[in-house]
Design goal:
Blueprint lengths: L1 E6 L4 H12 L4 E8 L3 H11 L3 E4 L2 H6 L7 E3 L1 H8 L6 E4 L7 H9 L3 E4 L2 H18 L2 E4 L2 H10 L7 E8 L17 H4 L9 H9 L1 H14 L6 E5 L5 E7 L4 E5 L5 H9 L14 H4 L13 H12 L3 H17 L7 H11 L9 H22 L1
Parallel strand pairs: 1-2, 1-5, 2-3, 3-4, 5-6, 6-7, 8-9
Antiparallel strand pairs: 8-10, 10-11
Length: 382
């Protein structure tokens, strides 16, 4: 049996991962669980899965909810210990936001197979992640449905045979909303995604298409693809998860009804596949018509900002990501309008002098600076 450390166990990806691991309990055992601040959820998971280590990252939550289960350790250091647990063959990193970067580096440095659902790791610290992968000798397998689809399409294909990668985006809940109404949409409306059931932050990122900008940067690092060879199209049905065009003109696509359980299972077993009856069988008739649209950058200005940050390289993607995290939190708290998210990101990027992202310290410094600038921008906008 292979040991699994699940980071972000009480979130949406964590819940899906536990469903998959439970169905395949003959092959995988959970050795570590980590949550940010959901004490009750983590405690229930401890009682059910009996991990060797459980972590509550947020110290404030730990103090507010004591006494904790005796299995629980707290703080960021404990999260790193879970990511490098000696009995973990596979680490699923489903931590939300840039907070997942250090855990990613720890897992790869320890030679683990990293099933990565924390796209911000590669966005903020792509060069660091690739270096940790090289030095640690581990594996990096994506969990995002789009990148899992690409991996499945290119498995076994030489790099020179790939011409282009095409990521699909649902377009979120405001794809057809008149532009002059976007400034008055509410957090509740933004959290009603038309096809996916996700956590609050990533759901808002889907509504702004920030998530797709993050995924373009992630694809650049995961597959060593130039930005000019990564395209995005809006695909409202979320049936085709990505496509790959080869040099001979052939195009391969991975299809399926929206579920995170399939890419999670594939990340656990890649390049092999396991029999699994836990996901809905695909029926092309039920899927209906599949349509595609060009990304409207006027509707999704944050998407364009993210692509520009990715192309700028260095610490610019870390700034983009940090500013977005602060802006989304401000929007959900009612401090800024929906359209203010892109404004906050733009101000943070304008104030930033891009530096090389060659050390963890430089990336974290850019992250902190961007959050400070974004915080000031939030106060001005509101």
């Amino acid at each position: 049996m292979r040991g699994v450390a699940l980071l972000g166990s009480t979130g949406s990806i964590g819940a899906n991962a536990l469903n998959v691991l439970s169905r395949h309990a003959h092959e995988f055992r959970i050795v570590a669980l980590a949550a940010n601040r959901n004490v009750a959820g983590l405690t229930r998971q401890i009682e059910r899965y009996k991990p060797e280590l459980a972590v509550l990252v947020d110290d404030d939550a730990a103090r507010a909810n004591g006494p904790l289960h005796p299995c629980i350790r707290t703080g960021r250091t404990a999260l790193i210990e879970a990511a490098s647990h000696p009995d973990a063959d596979i680490v699923i990193n489903a931590v939300v936001g840039a907070a997942g970067l250090e855990a990613t580096l720890a897992a790869l440095s320890a030679g683990k197979r990293l099933a990565l659902a924390n796209k911000e790791s590669l966005v903020a610290g792509g060069p660091l992640v690739k270096e940790a992968l090289r030095l640690g000798g581990g594996e990096l397998v994506p969990v995002d449905s789009e990148h899992s689809a690409i991996l499945q399409c290119i498995c076994g294909a030489p790099q020179r045979s790939i011409r282009r990668m095409i990521l699909t985006a649902s377009g979120g809940p405001f794809r057809d909303r008149p532009l002059n109404e976007l400034s008055v949409v509410t957090p509740a409306e933004a959290l009603r995604h038309p096809t996916w059931d996700m956590g609050a932050k990533i759901t808002v990122d889907s509504a702004t298409l920030v998530n797709k900008a993050l995924e373009v940067v992630e694809a650049h690092f995961l597959f060593d693809m130039p930005y000019d060879d990564i395209d995005v199209v809006v695909h409202p049905q979320s049936i085709i998860h990505s496509m790959v065009e080869f040099v001979d003109g052939s195009v391969l696509a991975q299809l399926g009804f929206p579920t995170m359980e399939l890419p999670i299972l594939y990340a656990l077993t890649h390049p092999e596949r396991r029999m699994d009856d836990g996901v809905r069988a695909f029926d092309p008739v039920s899927a209906g018509s599949l349509t595609f649209e060009v990304v409207d950058v006027q509707r999704f200005p944050a998407f364009a900002l993210g692509l520009a940050a990715g192309r700028a390289g260095g610490t610019a993607p870390a700034v983009f990501n940090a500013a977005n995290e602060e802006a989304v939190a401000g929007f959900l708290a009612g401090a800024i309008p929906f359209t203010g998210i892109a404004d906050v990101i733009a101000r943070a990027l304008d104030a930033h002098d891009t530096a090389p992202a060659d050390t963890l310290e430089s990336v974290l410094a850019a992250d902190r600076s961007a959050r400070d600038t974004a915080g000031a921008a939030l106060r001005k906008i509101c």
